[in-house]
Amino acid sequence: MKEILQVQHVVKYYGSGSVVTKALDDITFSVAQGEFTAIMGASGSGKSTLLNVISTIDRVSAGDIRVEGESLAEMKEDRLSAFRRDKLGFIFQEYNLLDTLTVWENIALPLNLKKVSAAETRREVARVSEALGVGDQLGKFPYELSGGQRQRAACARAIITSPAIVLADEPTGALDSKNSRILMQTFTQMNREMGSTILMVTHDAVVGSYAGRVLFLKDGKIWSEVQRGDRDRQDMYQEILSVMAALGGEADVR
Amino acid sequence: MFGKLALRNVKRQIGNYLIYFITVSITVALMFAVNNVIFCEELMAQAESLRELKVGLVAITVFVALIVAFVLGYATSFMLRLRKREFGTYLTLGMTRGNILCVFILETMLLCVAALAVGMLLGMFVYQGLMALVNRLLEMQFSIASYSMEGLLLTVVLVAGVFGLASLTSALYLKRVSIYKLLHGDRIVEKTVRHPFAWLLLALASLAGVIGCCVVFSQQMRLMMTGTGGSAGAMMGSLLVLAVVIVTFHIGLARSLVPLLLRSDAYRCRGTNAFTLRQLSGKLGANAVMAGALAFLLTFAVIGANVSFVQKVSERLTIDKSYPFDVMASLNEQGEMPIPLQEAERIIERYAHIERKLPYCVYRTGDNYLHSFTPWSGEAYAGVEDSILAESDLNRLLDALGEPPVELNGGFLIVADSPQVEGCDFSQATLQLGGKAYSYAGMRTDLPRLDFYYFAAVVPDEAVAGLPLQAECMAYDLAEGKFDAQALWRDLSYTYTSSYYSNGEEITFTSERSDYQIREYGRIMQQGNTAVFVVGALYIAMVFVFLVMAILALKTLSGLSEDRRRYAILFRLGAGPREQSKTLFRQIFTFFLLPFALPLLMSVPTAVICMQIMRLGGFAENMWEVALNAGAIAGVVLVIYALYFTATYLIAKRNFVRDTV
Question: What is the DSSP code string of B112-156?
C-alpha cells in the first residue's frame, strides 16, 4: 500500500535558553493510503504537537515529515498554504465552522479556495453532504445545528477536496456519547466507502477503538502501537484499555 | 482599589482603541482652537462684526459638542459591549453593579482627562493655524495669538459634558443588563435578510430621491436668484428630504447588496468571496442605520465646506463689484441731506487724504416704463421710477477704474447688478426722452454697481437734459494706507427715524444710516460674516469627517477577536497570507466605502450648484475657482479617509493575517 504520510525522526522543542521542553522526541511512523490511525496518550504526551507539525501549523525542530513524498520541512510559506488547501483536511474539537457562513458555504470554501468552478462545487457539495447526512441542513447557519450535525458538516468540509489525509483533533471532544458514536460511524464511512486516509488524535478509548491502528504517545515518544487486524471493535477497545492501564493510568480512560 | 483597576483597564484598552483616542484628541483640539478664536480679544478688537457673532459661534460649538456626544456615546456603548464578558465576570466575582459602574466611570474619566490634555496641547498649535486662516480671511496681519481663559474653560465644560452624556447610555445599560446576557449575550446569530429585492428597491428609490433633491434645489435656487419664482421652503424641504433619502439609501444598500451577491453562485464560489460577503453581511446588516447616519454627516460636511468657499469667493468678488471706489456718496435730492458733501469731505480728510473726486448724477424719468419689462411692475410698484445715467458720467467712472467705455450706438443700455434683471427682455423697449426715441442697445451685468436699485438705463448725454435729479453722487479715491473705517462710518452716519402702520397703529423705529458707502467698512463687515461662516463650516466638516472615520475604524477593530478566529480558520483551510490580506482588504474597504462613496460623489452636484450660484451671481468667470475648491475639499476628505483606512487595515492585518506557522 502506498505510504501517504511519513514521519521521520521528528523532534520538537518549545521555549528557549534554560527553559526548554522537548514535546516530541524522535518520532517515526508512517500512514498508508486508506488507513485510519488514531494517536492516543495522556495530556502533555505530545499528541496535539504531533498533529500541529503534520498539519503544517507548526514547524519541526529536527527530522522530516513527508506527505505523498513531499517534504514539509523544505516547503516555503506560500507553498505550505497551497499544500494545506490541496492535501490536508481538518476536523477540530470545536468544529471550527465559520459562524457567519451557511453550512453550504462552509463545505464549499475549500473548493472555492482551489478555484473550482461553481457547477462542480455545487455537485461536490451535494454529493458529500448527502453522503454524510447533512444534505438537508445546507441553508442553515452553524448555530442552527446540533453539535453532531456541526461536526458532520466539518467532516464534509474536510473531505470535499479529496485530500491526501484527513487530520482530526479530538473530534468528539465537544459531543455527547450518542453524537460521538454517530460521528465515529461517519469517520468509518469516510474511511471505508470514500477511501479517506485519517489521522485522529483522541484520548477517548471508545473513539480510538474505531481506528484500524492506534499509536500511543508518552513523553513525546511512541510508546506502543495496537493494530486492529481482523478483530472486532470490542476487542480493540479492550486492548486499548489494557495498554492505557500499562501506560500508568496517566491517560483519561472513559 | 477601583481606581487601580480602572487605570489598568485603560492601559490595557488603549492599545486597541488608539484610533478612537487620537480622534477624540483631535476633536478636543479643534474645539479648543475654535473656542479660543471665539474669545480672542485681539481679533474682536480688529473686527467688531465678530463680536456680534460671538453668540452664533458659541451656538455652533455647542451644537458640534452635542453631535460629538451622540457619536461618542455610540462608540462608548459598543466599546462596553465588547467587554461584556469582563464585566459579567466582575459580577460573578461578587462586585456590585455600583462598583462596576464606578470602575467604568473612572475609566471614562481617565480617558476624558487624557484626551483633554493631549487635545488641548495639540489645540494650541491648531489654534495658531486657525488664527492664521481667520487673519487671512479677514485680510489682517498674522501674529501669534494669545490664549484665552474663557476658551479653555468652555472647552473643559464642553468636553466634560460630551463625556458625561456619552457615558450615560453605557451606564444605563450596565445598570439594567443581566449577568447571563453579559456572559453569553455576544454569541453571533447570523440572520438572513428577508426581501433583499425590496431593500434594493428602497436603495434605488432613495438614489432617485437624492438626484431629485439636487435637481429641485438647483431649480428653486435658480428661480429665486433670477426672481422668476422659487421658494425658500421648497429649498429647505429638498435638503430635509435629501437627509432622509441619504439615510434610507444606505439602509437599503447595506441590506440588499450582500444578500443579492450571495445569490450568485458564480460570484460566491470564487476564492474567498463567500467569506468576505458573509463577514460584510453581519457588519453591514447590523450597521445599516449607522452607515446611513455617517453618510448623512459626511454629505453635509462636504456640502457645508463647499458652500463656505463659495461664500468666500463670491464675497471677494461682491466687494470688488459693490464698492468700485473707496467712498461713494449718494445724496437723495428729494429728501434731507443730514451730512452734505462738503462736510463729509472734511470728515473723510480726517481719516485719509482724498486723491480724486468724480461727480456724477442719477436721474429719474418720472415714470416706471422700463420697470414694466421686469417683475417689479404693476400696482404694488406704482411709486417706483426708472433710473437714468448719462453716458459721459458712466464712461468717466469706467475710465477711472481702467475699464473700456460703453457704446450706446444711439440707443440706451441697461446696466444691472441682479440676475433677476438678466432674465428680463427689454428688446421691445423704446425710451422716449426729450422728444426723441432711444431703442434698446443691450445689457451689461458686469459693470461695477452704481447708485441704482436693480438696474438703470444709460442714455446719451443729450437725453438727460431736463430730467429731474434722483441723486447727486460722488465717487472718491483715497490715498493708500490703513484708516479706521468703522470710525469713519460712524462719523458719516446718522440716526434715521421712520414709521409704519400695523393694524391701524403707528410703529416708529430708528436705525443708523449713512449716505456714504465706504469700501473698507463694507469689506470688514462682509469678511467678518464670511470668516465666521467659513470657520464654522470647516470646523463642523472636519469634526464630522474625523468622527465618521473613527467610528468606521472602531467598528472594524471592535470585531478583532471574532475576526482573528475566522481568519485563523481560513489559514488552516489553506488560504495563504496574500489571499487573507486580499480578503481583509476587500472586507474593510467595502465597509469603509459604503458610507463614504455617496458623500464624495455628492461633491459633483454640490460643485455644479455652487457654480450655478456663481454664474447667476454675475461671477461666471470665477466658476472654475469654485469647482477647484470642490475638488480640493473632496481631496482632503479622501486623504483623511485613506489615512484612517490604511491605519485600520494595517492594524487589522497585523492582528488577523497569519503569515508564518
Answer: HHHHHHHHHHHHHHHHHHHHHHHHHHTT----PPPP-HHHHHHHH
- Tell me what pLDDT residue B48 has: 61
A90 in reach of chain B (CB within 8 A): yes
Cβ distance A77 to B661 less than 8 Å, yes or no, reads: yes
B157 closest CA partner among B332, B4, B32: B32
Say whether B575 and A88 touch across the interface (CB within 8 A). Answer: no
Residue of A48, A87, A98 best to disrupt the B interface, most CBs of B under 10 A: A98
- Three-state SS for A122-138 is HHHHHHHHHHCCCHHHC
User: Rounded CA gap, B81 and B562, in Å?
Assistant: 14
Asked if the model's pLDDT at residue A253 lies above 50, the reply is no
Which of B190, B266, B576 shows the shortest C-beta gap to A118? B266
Res A7 pLDDT > 70:
yes
**H or E stretch at B278:** helix B273-286
Inter-chain contact B269–A83, Cβ cutoff 8 Å? no
Q: Tell me which residue in A58, A82, A113 faces B661 most closely, judged by beta carbons.
A: A58
The reply to whether residue A98 touches residue B268, judged by beta carbons under 8 angstroms, is no
C-alpha to C-alpha distance for B265 and B127, rounded to whole angstroms: 55
E-assigned strand segments in chain A: 3-16, 19-32, 36-41, 62-67, 70-71, 88-91, 165-169, 198-201, 213-218, 221-227
What would the grid cell of residue B107 be?
475609566
What ipTM was assigned to the predicted interfaces of this complex? 0.79
Q: Choose among B109, B152, B147: nearest CA to B128.
A: B147
State residue B237's pLDDT score.
Answer: 92
**B436-444, strands of its sheet edge to edge:** B430-433, B436-444, B412-416, B455-459, B387-390, B354-364, B469-478, B327-332, B516-518
The residue of chain B nearest to residue A141, with distances taken between CA atoms, is B190
Q: Which domains does chain A have, with CATH numbers?
A: 3-246 (3.40.50.300)
CB contact under 8 A, A90 and B572: yes
B31, B155 contact by CB (below 8 A): yes
As given in the structure block, the three cell numbers for residue B522 are: 463694507
Measured distance CA(B200)–CA(B219) in Å, rounded: 28
pTM of the model: 0.74
Asked if residues B302 and B517 have their Cβ atoms less than 8 Å apart, the reply is no
Q: Taking residues B434-455, report their average pLDDT.
A: 83
Q: Distance between CA A177 and CA A179 in Å, rounded?
A: 6
**Closest by Cβ to B574, choosing from A81, A118, A121:** A81
What is the residue type of A214?
Answer: V
Q: Convert the pLDDT of each residue in B550-582 to its tens digit.
A: 888 877 777 666 788 888 888 888 888 888 899
Residues 6+ apart with CB under 8 A from B195: none
Would you call B574 and A86 a contact, using CB atoms and an 8 Å cutoff? yes
The secondary structure of residue B174, as a DSSP letter, is H
Nearest CA-CA partner of B13 in B104, B88, B113: B104
Selecting from B275, B571, B577 the residue whose C-beta is nearest the C-beta of A109 gives B275
Cβ-count burial of B232 within 10 angstroms (0-12 exposed, 13-18 middle, 19+ buried)? Answer: exposed
d(Cα B246, Cα B291) in Å, to the nearest integer? 10
Q: Which helix (H) or strand (E) holds B342?
A: helix B341-351
Q: Name the closest residue on chain B to residue A160, using Cα atoms.
A: B573
DSSP state of A9: E
* Domain spans, chain B: 1-187, 328-522
- Taking contacts as CB-CB distances below 8 angstroms, the residues of chain B near A98 are 275, 278, 566, 569
